[in-house]
Amino acid sequence: MNQIVPCWIYRSSRKDEMFLYLTGEEAFDDVPKLLMEQFGSPELVMQLDLHPERRLAREEVSKVIDNLQQRGFHLQMPPVLKPDLYEGG
Questions:
Q1: Given pLDDT bands bounded at 50, 70 and 90, which one contains residue 1?
Q2: In Å, how far are 22, 82, 83, 85 from 89, measured between CA atoms?
Q3: Is the pTM above the cut of 0.70?
Q4: How many structural domains compose the chain?
């Protein structure tokens, strides 16, 4: 039987493309205070059920599920931008 983990995803008001995954709606109790200060006002993006077969755009679902179960949250950092090697010179 597949493991299903409900998940609420919040967008950071301070950092573009930074997201916080939680185990419950408005369940910020397990998120460190310093992280919440840097994250800013959380804006709910969506609620979804995670399971091993679900694909996420930029995160490995098994890692997100593990973090949710062990920490109560998962932080998705903005992507690392790489300079275009074909411009210039």
A1: very low
A2: 46, 17, 13, 10
A3: yes
A4: 1
